[in-house]
Amino acid sequence: MHTETIVALSSGALPSGVAVIRASGAKARALLESVCGDLPEPRRASLRTFRDGDGAVIDRGIALFFDAPKTVTGEDVAEFHLHGGRAVVAAFLSAATRIEGVRSAEAGEFTRRAFENGRIDLTEAEGLADLLSAETEAQRRAAVNQASGALRHVYEGWMERLTRARAMVEASFDFADEGDVGEDADAGVRQAVDRLIGDMKTHLASAARGEILRTGFKVAIVGAPNAGKSSLLNALAEREAAIVTDIPGTTRDVISVTLDLGGYPVILSDTAGIRETKDKVEEIGVAKARAAMRESDLVLALEDPADAPGPISRFFSLMSMVKHPLGPMGLALPGQEDEEEARPTRAILTVRTKIDEVEGSPDDHRARAIEKGGYDFVTSVKTGEGLADLTRRIADLAREAAGDPTETIPLRQRQRELIADALRILESYRDEPEAPAEVAAETLRRASTRLGALTGQVGVEDLLDVIFSEFCIGK
Ligand SMILES: Nc1nc2c(c(=O)[nH]1)N(C=O)[C@@H](CNc1ccc(C(=O)N[C@@H](CCC(=O)O)C(=O)O)cc1)CN2
Ligand SMILES: Nc1nc2c(ncn2[C@@H]2O[C@H](COP(=O)(O)OP(=O)(O)OP(=O)(O)O)[C@@H](O)[C@H]2O)c(=O)[nH]1
Ligand SMILES: [Mg+2]
């Protein structure tokens, strides 16, 4: 139990309509009594005049008292809803921290107390951090799922199964000279551990998809100089993010914008036109373009009507630059199956740009261009043709790659490493069936400390500072 009471502004930037100040700890009652003149009835919004230590009025607002232990932090909690002016909040915080035993909260300290008092586990705290930083609908849905205990449930289930297996191994010490009983128990434990290994592997594999919710679905726009790459980026981003000129070789650096497409975070990168060049700056740009292509989940290969090679030859020359290409049909190419840690979707879409420069009715030349070249899309930033279709396709691919946000698990590196560690240990148990029971018990114990660290049950003390500093002050 903490002796100090913490207080902070929990609502957003000032000025705001209403500012919410929270306090947590043993002095929450004293704070309420001092500021409001009385202790409001628990869990009822009460209108009060807030006064400082000298009795001067700070503001008139709503006060709330939540009595421990069934509160968000597990401690007594006070809330004050004030008018959201900078000076109002400053005066209130200064009056509050003048009370003995009350100090300003550090980043994430309310959540940390909730964790330390067992109100939430570490995966739920991490889910809350994700919820606060969620910018798209899919990110929000995944985060609220995790903050509500979806991962906790999975990891506690694993822990329970492992604990049962350990109990049986430890019990088998006593059966050492009773032959049959010990062997039956041993077979049961081995089967249980095998199943656990299988479930953990499935979990890690589906987490690889969820990672796209964290990093964004990466799309690289590539093509020859002047193909209309920067124009397309600007059109999709709906702002002038990249310089556009009629001079081939305008773009040198990779220019990225983050979009919300159908609720999925998409990072769209404009790159330098790829060509042989003697210009040192442009050459570096071309190298960066190739790197961006390799790191992307989707490549948009652009060609304008002046481009000679045509989409198919270009497609095949692009393939040699992409690490794990999937054809436009989503088929993996032979000998280039995804590595385990690689992202599931890699695709190339060919785009014919500047279709407005071609004579004829829009419908005619779309039909002609698709027939002639087999482009996936024909577009014009002048008329807007094809842009909505292209955007929809990118969003679809992002959704396919990331999976359903209520099921995908955007694991953190910390979690992935702990699971991989526990897996390695369990596999070493599996692979040494002749090991003495004492050794087996020790191996399983080591695996269980890794699983315990996932939910924060064990061995995370030095990690907590890192995890909770991710939050803002007041959370
Ligand atoms: N004004 C305000 N709004 C807020 C918060 C807050 O602290 N203050 N929250 C801050 O994050 C979130 C809500 N989270 C909360 C989670 C648990 C409890 C709580 O008191 N739980 C008890 C009692 C449940 C009950 O009475 O039904 C419990 O779970 O035992 C309160 C808020 C979002 N909105
Ligand atoms: N008519 C027409 N012109 C376009 C279209 N898209 C781009 N352009 C023009 O084509 C020229 C090149 O466009 P950019 O977007 O700078 O081309 P880029 O591929 O980024 O070129 P680099 O950065 O040099 O590789 C500019 O003059 C654009 O105005 C289009 O859809 N229709
Ligand atoms: Mg450009």
From TrEMBL:
Instruction: Write down the Gene3D superfamilies for this protein, in alphabetical order.
Output: P-loop containing nucleotide triphosphate hydrolases (3.40.50.300), Probable tRNA modification gtpase trme, domain 1 (3.30.1360.120), tRNA modification GTPase MnmE domain 2 (1.20.120.430)
Q: Which GO molecular function entries does the Swiss-Prot or TrEMBL record give?
A: GTP binding; GTPase activity; metal ion binding
Membrane-spanning segments: none
* Binding positions ((6S)-5-formyl-5,6,7,8-tetrahydrofolate): 22, 79, 119, 475
- The TrmE-type G domain covers 216-399
Q: Describe its function.
A: Exhibits a very high intrinsic GTPase hydrolysis rate. Involved in the addition of a carboxymethylaminomethyl (cmnm) group at the wobble position (U34) of certain tRNAs, forming tRNA-cmnm(5)s(2)U34.
Which GO cellular component terms, listed alphabetically, does the Swiss-Prot or TrEMBL entry include? cytoplasm
Where does it live in the cell?
Cytoplasm
Needed cofactors: K(+)
Query: Could you give the cofactor binding note from the entry?
Result: Binds 1 potassium ion per subunit.
Binding positions for K(+) per the UniProt entry: 226, 245, 247, 250
Q: What EC number(s) does the entry state?
A: 3.6.-.-
Q: PROSITE patterns this protein is in?
A: G_TRME
The record's subunit annotation is:
Homodimer. Heterotetramer of two MnmE and two MnmG subunits.
Protein name according to UniProt = tRNA modification GTPase MnmE
